[in-house]
Write a structure and sequence with these properties.
binds ligand LHQ, 10 helices
Length: 256
């Protein structure tokens, strides 16, 4: 992980294995996400991959089962390994940008979709590879993907495992933007830097409201908006935002 001013870049870094996730990477990811969450001076996170892939999902070498061998406890692996990582990103009270630099497969797609802004390089593709090895999509994929792309497209991706290119993913609403390969780093970093100057606390509240809104009735959501707005209105960024508007100058938000 590297820190750049108010934002941090987290690079999945096992390029020889297409950044597939093994136990060590899971532990390092958990540690890095906790550090970002706990550091007030980091106000945005950018996640990307090293080399030609973003992330090929679970490291399947770690999962090989010898004939007649004992089946692994995948429920436990998800509950203790992947699920906390996905929830940490989705619930982190600061914005998370993802730069999908190449192929994303299996839990690699889920990881990207848990982020708030997904950029993908034109040459990247998204593969719901789970059914190819006899598994169901996990790590939030069955929650994020139908909501983003719609049920028919999510179902087709999940039940065929056919790759979807970045341009199509953007057209389907799965991701925020498909950009030229040579522009991925600059565009995602520019957004991360911009978000690092944003009213962080308000952005965290927006994330929370959007997740809760997936479950709430309209009356309940109206009430939750009132509660969060009540808190946001007590923040120093609100006072600064209004002052800056009236003084016709850019706001200088501190994130509080
Ligand atoms: C890999 C992998 C990989 C190890 C490429 N592992 N080496 C969660 C919780 C609990 C349990 C189970 O699962 C999960 C969630 C999941 O993520 S399940 C889904 C796991 N992922 C997959 O099934 C994807 C497997 N990979 C692929 O389908 C392809 O490699 C993709 C489409 C990602 C890329 O295809 P290509 O561009 O043609 O590359 P390649 O297949 O030639 O791979 C390059 C190298 O990377 C190769 O190694 P080698 O030593 O021969 O160069 C692959 O073995 C290795 N690799 N994915 N997941």
């Amino acid at each position: 992980m590297e820190q750049n001013g108010g934002w941090a870049r987290l690079t999945l870094n096992r390029p020889g294995k297409l950044n597939s996730v093994n136990a060590q990477m899971r532990a390092e990811l958990a540690e890095a996400l906790a550090a970002v969450d706990g550091e007030e001076n980091i106000r945005a996170l950018l996640i990307t991959g090293a080399g030609r892939a973003f992330c090929a999902g679970q490291d399947l070498q770690e999962r090989e089962i010898a004939p007649g061998g004992e089946a692994p406890d995948l429920r436990r692996s998800l509950r203790e390994g992947y699920n906390p990582l996905i929830w940490k990103i989705a619930s982190m009270p600061k914005p998370v940008v993802c730069a999908v630099n190449g192929v994303a497969a299996g839990a690699g797609v889920s990881l990207a979709m848990a982020c708030d802004f997904v950029f993908a390089a034109e040459s990247a593709r998204f593969v719901m590879a789970f059914c190819g090895i006899g598994l169901v999509p996990d790590s939030g994929a069955t929650w994020f993907l139908p909501r983003a792309a719609g049920l028919p497209r999510a179902r087709a991706m999940m039940m065929t495992g056919e790759p979807v290119d970045a341009k199509t993913a953007a057209q389907w609403g799965m991701i925020y933007r498909c950009v030229a390969d040579g522009e991925l780093a600059e565009q995602s970093e520019t957004l991360a830097a911009k978000l690092a100057r944003a009213p962080t606390s308000a952005l965290g509240r927006i994330k929370r409201l959007l997740i809760e809104g997936e479950e709430n009735s309209l009356p309940r959501q109206l009430e939750r908006e009132a509660e969060e707005q009540g808190e946001a209105g007590r923040g120093s960024d609100y006072a600064e935002g209004v002052r800056a508007f009236l003084e016709r100058r850019p706001a200088d938000f501190t994130g509080r």
